[in-house]
Amino acid sequence: MIETSLTLFEQHGFHGVSVNEIVKECGTSKGGFYHHFSSKDELLFVIHDYFISYVLTKAQEAISASAHPTEKMQKIIQSFVKVFDLYKPHISVFYQESIYLKPPYVEAIKKKRQMYKEIIFSVIQEGIDKGEFRSELPVEITGMSILGMVNWSYKWYKRDGGKTIEEIGEIYVDLILQALLTDKQKKDAITQPYLLKNQMVVD
């Protein structure tokens, strides 16, 4: 049902598609639709929730599984980038149609997005506190820059492009860590396998 809705919303827009058209296209009934969703608004919210829940879960896993802020940031960025491949239709539809969401759903979305933002900020601050990241970088501006840069991927990423999503993730990791890491941390990269894996170039 969600996949059918994504296709129809992409083609005709949120208001250009009725519940009747959704259930007809996917071969179910209106009763089946309303068993899962109270309204089209809830359906649009669930479409967003798929991808924000994915990146939030992956970020929380990175924090739990990794001791070093550098490694945490690497894993967070890689999972963040991967979402644009896993949930590309969801993201495209959400950004095109999110203006139609009602306030309760908007607030629920803002809450999860704020949680994700705070994870990014906390990892940057931890990296500064532990001497891995440059202390002169303002945490919030740096975090918002990372979010903005990676988020824009939904505008240009194509599955049949010249780079795989994993290769694009490695490029983002390299760009962001080169900006974040202290000179000492870059020179110490040879002792840190999670940096070497991304082939960071150190003078």
Automatic annotation (TrEMBL):
Transmembrane segments: none
Signal sequence, start to end: none
InterPro entries in the record: Homeodomain-like_sf (IPR009057), HTH-type_Tx_Regulator (IPR050624), HTH_TetR (IPR001647), KstR2_TetR_C (IPR041490), Tet_transcr_reg_TetR-rel_C_sf (IPR036271)
PANTHER family, per the entry: ACREF/ENVCD OPERON REPRESSOR-RELATED, ACREF_ENVCD OPERON REPRESSOR-RELATED
GO MF assignments: DNA binding
DNA-binding region: 18-37
Keyword Nucleotide-binding in record: no
One matching Pfam family: TetR_N
Keywords: DNA-binding, Repressor
Name of the featured protein: TetR family transcriptional regulator
Residue ranges of every copy of the HTH tetR-type domain listed in the record: 1-55
Keyword Repressor: yes
